Amino acid sequence: MVESGLTELxxxxxxxxxxxxGVLTRATTHRSWAVENNFNGDYExxxxxxxxILAMVVVNYIFQRFPEAGEDYLSRLKSHLVSRxxxxxxxxxxxxxxxxxxxxAEECSGGRTKPSIIVDTFEAVIGAxxxxxxxxxxxxxxxxxxxxxxxxxxxxxxxxxxxxAQARFNCLPVYNLLSAEGPEHQKTFRVEVKxxxxxxxxxxxxxxxxxxxxxxxxxxxxxxxx
Length: 226
Known about the structure:
Number of helices: 10
Distance between the termini: 41 Å
Oligomer: single chain
Structural class: mainly alpha
CATH architecture of the largest domain: Orthogonal Bundle
Radius of gyration: 21 Å
Strand content: 5-15%
Order of helices and strands: HHHHHHHHHEEEH
Largest sheet: 3 strands, antiparallel
CATH topology of the largest domain: Ribonuclease iii, N-terminal Endonuclease Domain, Chain A
Number of strands: 3
């Protein structure tokens, strides 16, 4: 059964038994399936709870892990770790979409691949684990993913843009050199970055690598404003 498969997966992640798999069943039930099958409840309330638990665990984790970090760095770190693209990546890591119960119409319209549904289900699972075993169980689940994060890459705009492009557009950024001007020892490079064949950012620097980072940051700033 799908429910037992998810229960076994989470038990292996958390290293503890799940005694009430029913709460996980609700956490993976989309409204369309509930309506179609006259099922009392879907994941929406659990998603609301899980979203709050996720933020609390993430904040505590980075606060303890980076004791010398200032508020600005911690805020940027938190924003990255609770972002939809990060949660989507975590959910895909355990193939959570395979466990979601969708109504036939939602299934046919590609609901199983919709990032919003996958992310909401992941947060609902966190809410379900909190109800099942309290904050300790939810924390074990979340920290399983946090422990695998490469924090050295989080401040790298190219890495962040690549992650965002894969999550939102299902493709990779492409960098194109626009110009390289000036004497050989003091060139200025100008680069554009495209996602899905559209220009998202332009940057310049004294090296091509610096120009690509500048273009990536420009793209990230523009995406945040949309």
